[in-house]
Structures are given as C-alpha cells and as structure tokens.
C-alpha cells in the first residue's frame, strides 16, 4: 500500500465523495481547467466556479503527479471562500483546502480546515475523509478510524473502501485490506467513475498485492490500471517493480523510464538506479541517483514533501548518513506515522546508532504491520545489536511475506539470514 494517505485524500475529494461524472475524465482536466477559468473571469463573485476550478487543478495533479497544481488548487479554494461561500459551499472549499494541505504535508492545517468545514456543514463526508487522512499521516490511527467510521454508511464509490484497506494493512490485517481494496475497485467500476480514478484504485490494489507477495495478481492489477488510463505513471512504476521482483530488470528499467517520462518522482529514479546497479551498469545508476537528489531539492515544496523519500534513499545506499537522520527527524516533526519511524530507524542504523534505531523501529512495528520492508529493517537492526534470534525472526518474516520485496535488499536479507542460520547451526550441540 502507499506509505501514507495523501493520495487517498485526492481520491475522496474528486471521485469517491462526489457524484460520478461530476469531474473530468482522464485526459480532460486541461479542458475543464480552461472552462472554469473562463467562468471565474466572467463571474468573479461565484464561489462554486472557483471550487470547481480547484477540483480541476487537483484532477490534473492526480493525472500528472505535478505538485505545482496543489498551489493553484489552494488559491482557487481560497478565492471561493473570499467570494462569500457559505454553508455547504464553504464546507466543500474548506475540506478541499484540507486535502491540499495533506499533499503539502501540512497535516495540522489539514485537520484545522476539516474541522472548520464540519463547523460550516456538520456531517460533511469529504471533511471527515480529510480529517481521517490527516490523522493517519500523524500516526493517530484510532482517530483516523473514528473519522472513517462516519463514512461507513455511504455506498458505492462514496464508501471509504481504500481508506479502510490502508488502515487494515497497517494494523496487520492484509486479507481484510485486500477485501476492502477489491471493494473499492468494484465500486468505482460499477459507478462509472472516471478513468483516472479507476486506474488509481487498481494501482492501489496492485501495490497491496505486491506487498503481500502476490506478484502475478499485482501485475494484473497494474495492467488493469493502464488499460483504464494509458500512461498512468504510478501503474507503470508498479508494473516495473513487479518485473524487477520477477528477475526481469530490463523490463523493469523500461517501465520506470515510462513513469519518469510522465513525472520525475525521486522514488522512480531511485528504483531505476537500483535496477541498473543490479545489472552492473554503475555509471547509468549513478546518474539516476544524482537525479533523486536533484528532484528532492528542486523547489521549496519538493524539499518538504520528499524528505522521507530522500532520507530512505540515503540510508538504502549508505550515503550521507547524518543527513538521512536529519531529514527523517525533520519529517517526524510533522508526520509521526509508522513509516516515518521506520525510515528514521533505518537511517539511525546506517549512521552507526543501532540502539536508537531499535527504539524508533519499535514505534514502526507497534501496530503489527506485516510489511517486508519493516521486517527487513528490524532484522538488520537486531543483527547489528548482536541479537541473532530476533534478527533471524524478522528476516525470515520479511522473506515469507514477499521473497522479492526489493530489487537489492531481498538478496541481502537472504544472505544475512543464511549467515545467521549457519552460525546457529554451528553452535547447536
């Protein structure tokens, strides 16, 4: 599953909680933007036109992954409020501002916007969705569940299937997560949701299937996403991840290049570099690794939203350990979910501070999440501390969940586990 709920905020705002067909189908966002730009130019006092313009900007962000549309959407929603939006109209604009704030990693602001939205229109479903998403990101999972429970009576794509899937996954219930995510896919299809929204749901299902080790089913889900929305960057990257896990690095490289051609995200460049490194193409890998840093440092917003990805990249590749720790701690100031604790733990280990890493890792594992990456990191931390039994336990768990969870680290987990098992065998009477 995605490490965070920010994407889910967009899904709820644009498709799951609005009437099917109310927004642009895939590829039409530019036309809708122009249409509503013209409307606000003709009638600058109409709050609803500004809100719809903001929704169109967000749809464009969903299609392209371009973070600059967040700022444009935020400005449009604020214009709606300035134009005198009241009641449900004010609630819609405020909840949308909350969704934008999540994407910008301003989670406290997102909660404040959602609560204001509920003050303007008690019971507003989108506001509860945003409220839950923000609580997920700051690690307040019980509060998130309470917010999502307010959406449970809704039917079809308005039901919080994807959110409940994410909660189930982090709580160590992968079968329930799969059931909920399949419900999201089916609901979107039955409701005739937009092509991009159907692709988004299929991609989330693919990520969950990958994380549970079901590679063939994950590939099918990603192909379904690309059939719904050709060129969808997240589906290309997901399918590339499957190809890498299947030992097909050339196919994975082609897939990551397709994803990067749509939007240069640091995680795509890092994964492409890892595939190239696996093939011994060190110079090409190095260029991709340089791109990771360039993207992560490009612009003020990128320096906020990519802190965790950049910290993980540094720790994964044994470079800039002190900076990795600093970035992870900076992220933890605003985002106290289990995956930020995991990245902090991994960075601390690579900085030679395994005791501190263990304390952070215990926070990452507090929900019992069945995630191969978490288990691998925990195993390596225990190995560094000389706790061979716990190291073997966690490494074996990582490989049982998904034997090919990472193009480079899965092999390292196998080698380390074999060494530990061999040592245990030699000590046995």
Description:
The chain is mainly α. It has helices spanning 6-16, 29-42, 47-64, 68-82, 87-103, 107-120, 125-137, 141-149, 161-170, 174-190, 195-211, 215-228, 233-245, 249-262, 266-278, 282-297, 300-305, 307-316, 321-332, 338-350, 354-364, 372-384, 388-401, 409-427. Among the domains are: 1-171, Tetratricopeptide repeat domain (Serine Threonine Protein Phosphatase 5, Tetratricopeptide repeat, Alpha Horseshoe); 370-427, no CATH class. Helix content is 75%, strand content 0%. Helix 1 packs across helix 3 (47-64) and helix 21 (354-364) runs antiparallel to helix 22. It starts with 5 loop residues before the first helix and ends with a helix. The model is unreliable at 14-26 (pLDDT under 50).
Structural class label: mainly alpha
| Overall outline | globular
CATH hierarchy class name of the domain at 1-171: Mainly Alpha
Instruction: Give the strand content.
Output: under 5%
CATH topology of the domain at 1-171: Serine Threonine Protein Phosphatase 5, Tetratricopeptide repeat
- Work out the helicity level: over 70%
Quick one: CATH superfamily of the domain at 1-171?
Tetratricopeptide repeat domain
Number of strands: 0
Rg from C-alpha positions? 22 Å
Mean pLDDT: 91
End-to-end gap:
44 Å
**Biggest beta-sheet profile:** none
Provide a count of the helices.
24
SSE topology string = HHHHHHHHHHHHHHHHHHHHHHHH
> Any low-confidence stretches, pLDDT <50, length ≥5?
14-26
CATH architecture of the domain at 1-171: Alpha Horseshoe
């Amino acid at each position: 599953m995605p490490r965070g709920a920010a994407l889910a905020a967009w899904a709820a705002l644009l498709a799951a909680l609005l009437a099917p067909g109310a927004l642009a189908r895939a590829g039409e966002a530019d036309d809708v933007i122009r249409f509503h730009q013209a409307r606000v130019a003709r009638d600058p006092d109409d709050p609803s036109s500004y809100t719809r313009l903001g929704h169109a900007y967000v749809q464009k962000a969903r299609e392209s992954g371009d973070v600059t549309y967040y700022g444009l959407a935020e400005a449009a929603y604020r214009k709606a409020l300035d134009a005198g939006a009241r009641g449900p109209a004010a609630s819609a604009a405020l909840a949308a501002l909350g969704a934008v704030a999540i994407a910008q990693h301003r989670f406290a602001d997102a909660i404040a916007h959602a609560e204001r939205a509920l003050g303007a229109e008690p019971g507003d479903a989108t506001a509860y969705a945003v409220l839950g998403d923000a609580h997920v990101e700051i690690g307040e999972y019980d509060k998130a569940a309470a917010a999502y429970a307010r959406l449970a009576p809704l039917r079809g794509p308005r039901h919080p299937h994807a959110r409940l899937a994410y909660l189930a996954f982090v709580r160590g219930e992968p079968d329930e997560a799969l059931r909920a995510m399949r419900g999201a896919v089916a609901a979107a299809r039955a409701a005739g949701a937009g092509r991009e929204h159907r692709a988004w749901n299929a991609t989330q299902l693919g990520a969950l299937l990958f994380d549970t080790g079901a590679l063939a089913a994950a590939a099918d889900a990603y192909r379904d996403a690309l059939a719904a929305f050709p060129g969808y960057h997240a589906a290309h990257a997901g399918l590339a991840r499957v190809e890498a896990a299947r030992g097909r690095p050339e196919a994975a490289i082609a897939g990551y290049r397709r994803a990067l051609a749509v939007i240069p995200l640091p995680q795509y460049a890092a994964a492409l570099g890892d595939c190239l490194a696996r093939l011994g193409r060190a110079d090409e890998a190095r260029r991709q690794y340089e791109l990771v840093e360039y993207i992560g440092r490009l612009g003020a917003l990128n320096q906020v939203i990519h802190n965790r990805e950049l910290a993980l990249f540094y720790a994964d590749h044994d470079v800039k350990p002190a900076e990795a720790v600093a970035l992870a701690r900076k992220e933890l100031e605003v985002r106290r979910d289990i995956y930020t604790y995991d990245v902090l733990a991994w960075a601390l280990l690579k900085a030679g501070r395994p005791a501190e890493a263990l304390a952070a890792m215990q926070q990452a594992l507090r929900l019992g999440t069945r995630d191969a990456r978490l288990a691998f990191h925990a195993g390596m931390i225990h190995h560094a501390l000389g706790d061979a039994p716990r190291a073997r336990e966690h490494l074996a768990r990582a490989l049982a969940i998904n034997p090919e969870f990472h193009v480079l680290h899965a092999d390292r987990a196998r080698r380390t586990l074999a060494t530990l098992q061999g040592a245990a065998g030699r000590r046995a009477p």
